[in-house]
Write a structure and sequence with these properties.
The chain has 266 residues and is of the alpha/beta class. The protein has a single domain, classed as Rossmann fold (3-Layer(aba) Sandwich). Helix content is 29%, strand content 26%. It has six helices and 13 strands. It has helices at 42-57, 71-81, 102-114, 140-147, 205-220, 253-265, and strands spanning 4-8, 11-13, 21-24, 27-30, 38-40, 62-69, 88-93, 124-129, 153-162, 168-174, 178-184, 189-193, 223-224. A nine-stranded mixed β-sheet has the order 11-10-9-12-8-1-6-7-13, sandwiched between helices. The protein has a two-stranded antiparallel sheet with strand order 2-5. The N and C termini lie far apart (60 Å).
Length: 266
């Protein structure tokens, strides 16, 4: 059967950049945030590539990417992601940094998904990252699923296969480096991906051009998303660096280890 695969994914600052939190009139932000190069969130990237693999195996399936981020940044990143695989973008113009509340993000994403024309929940597979590179809350996908009435939810997913009878066989990470294997008879379902096991698709310029013809009008019409939250920050700063150095000679290794253990206990 064909699937309607919806991938929730935001943007993250390029991990090679130095990030410095600052206080702004609108609340906490990153220094020169709009100047920092951005990438598609790596956790959501795994979900997107798994979606591409599944759609190839099931003709007639579609992929939609729902993304909340500043519109200008989203356009830059999508010019790269669009070359990887065919999909339709559902953009939301709003803040996408790490100082946003997971609950308010989930509410905005759920409203955008519910408004997608022709949505058939009996075919919906809702993909996203188990966590994110900016927020790391690990709760957004569950809340989006609950708001959409999708209660079959699987977290920390590493593998998805489809049985001959159409059932979803899902491997989730559990403690001790093991996997829990679950079987879901049919969609709808929420799958929050960990790393998956597929490589990043190669660039395909023709796919990119076809995607961008639809993405540019969608970005121009991106719906502004206002986030309401009771979350407040008293202060934001870089973690303090503490270094205590003492140079010693002719001290046995056991004595050094004992001193280090005592220092850690303090």
């Amino acid at each position: 059967m064909p699937y309607q695969i919806i991938v929730c994914g935001g943007l993250a600052p390029d991990p090679l950049q130095t990030l410095e939190p600052v206080s702004s009139p609108a609340g906490p932000a990153l220094k020169n945030e709009m100047m920092l190069p951005a990438v598609f969130d790596p956790w959501a990237g795994h979900a997107l590539y798994e979606a591409a693999h599944l759609a190839k195996q099931h003709p007639g399936s579609s992929i939609k990417v729902v993304s909340l981020a500043p519109k200008a940044k989203l356009q830059q990143v999508m010019m790269t992601i669009a070359q990887k695989l065919p999909f339709e973008l559902v953009p939301l113009d709003g803040p996408g940094g790490g100082f946003t509340d997971a609950a308010s993000i989930a509410a905005v994403l759920a409203d955008a998904i519910a408004a997608i024309p022709g949505l058939d929940k009996s075919q919906v597979l809702l993909f996203g990252g188990w966590e994110s590179a900016t927020r790391g809350a690990g709760t957004v996908m569950q809340m989006v699923g609950e708001k959409l009435g999708i209660t079959e939810q699987f977290l920390a997913v590493d593998e998805l296969t489809i049985d001959a009878d159409g059932a979803l066989v899902i491997k989730e990470r559990v403690e001790g480096g093991q996997h829990q294997v679950s079987r879901c008879t049919a969609p709808p379902a929420v799958l929050a991906w960990a790393t998956g096991n597929l490589s990043e698709p190669a660039n395909h310029p023709q796919t990119g051009m076809a995607n961008m013809r639809a993405m540019m009008p969608a970005l121009q019409k991106a719906k502004p998303a206002s986030l309401t939250s009771a979350l407040t920050f008293a202060d934001v700063s870089l973690p303090a660096v503490t270094r205590q150095t003492r140079i010693v000679k002719d001290v046995p290794a056991a004595e050094i280890a004992r001193e280090i253990a005592e220092w850690i206990k303090q």
